[in-house]
Amino acid sequence: MTPACVAEGAAWLAGQEPRFAAALELTGALPLRRRRDGFEPLLSAIVSQQVSVAAADAIWARLRTAKLTGPRKILGATEEELRACGLSRQKIRYARELAAARIRFGELRDAPLEEVIATLVAVPGIGRWTAEIYAMFSLGRADVFAPGDLALQEAVRLLFELDSRPSERILRDMAAAWSPWRAVAARLLWAYYRVAKQREGIR
User: Fold this and answer.
1) Is residue 123 within 8 Å of 103, Cβ to Cβ?
2) Which of 15, 46, 113, 165 sits at a 20 to 30 Å CA gap from 107?
3) pTM attached to this predicted model
4) Contact (CB, 8 A) for 66 and 85
5) Annotated catalytic residue, options 57, 110, 149, 173
6) Number of domains within the chain
């Protein structure tokens, strides 16, 4: 994915769905949000689970200051050192499981999406949401969505004027209509969430 891809996808979505066109009027150009692949962004995604964006940013900053963002560092750190950075006991276990998994990240770059997700969710602490976020931002896949994301659910509720947040299953079904640009639809919905709620929905 490149900025040109995001712009192309946004234009396609706006042509398919008037609500997306209206949202784009509010959000302006969408960010690429491309990240490196490998261990560090997955560890960052684990840090982000079930906490606010602000809390995740603070924990991540402490981990970086302590130079505890690589697999060897995680495996060599004491539980006290990791807890001092803000990680819960459960997330410490997940971080260590990821560090010990020895995933061959380079091989995931060209692997089919479901193979990427299957490889990642085999690691304790990495669910489908984390795997989909990784595929979207670190691998640059254009046609992946994360319907389990609460900010995306809330953005869809607001934009589509639904009575309640759609479930993960319902939102996955809705997102099928946004293929082959589902990752751009996600970026648009996060941008709309930011405008509508005046806070970030994704790191």
Assistant:
1) yes
2) 46
3) 0.85
4) yes
5) 149
6) 2
Residue 105 CA: distances (Å) to CA of 66, 96, 109, 164, 197: 24, 17, 7, 38, 35
Given its phi and psi angles, is residue 69 left (phi above 0), alpha (psi -120 to 50 degrees) or beta? alpha
**In sequence order, which ranges of the chain are alpha helices (DSSP H)?**
3-16, 18-27, 39-48, 53-65, 71-76, 79-84, 89-101, 105-108, 113-121, 128-137, 150-159, 168-175, 182-197
We report the CATH number of the domain holding residue 163 as 1.10.1670.40
Return the half-sphere exposure (C-beta side, CA atoms, 13 A cut-off) of residue 96: 14
Q: 69: Cβ–Cβ under 8 A, 6 or more apart, which residues?
A: 40, 43, 44, 63
Chain segment 154-191, per-residue pLDDT in tens: 999 999 999 999 999 999 999 999 999 999 999 999 99
Residue 8 neighbours by CB under 8 Å, 6+ apart: 181
> Does 202 map to a domain?
no
- Copy the structure tokens of residue 99: 């560090």
Examine the residue annotation and report whether 57 is marked as an active-site residue of this protein.
no
Q: Does residue 46 sit in the same domain as residue 126?
A: yes
Q: Verify that 127 and 102 share a domain, yes or no.
A: yes
- Helix/strand/coil percentages in the chain, nearest 5: 65, 0, 35
Q: What is the DSSP string of 45-103?
A: HHHHTTS-HHHHHHHHHHHHHTT--SHHHHHHS-HHHHHHTT--HHHHHHHHHHHHH--
- Tens of pLDDT, residue by residue over 70-85, are 999 999 999 999 999 9
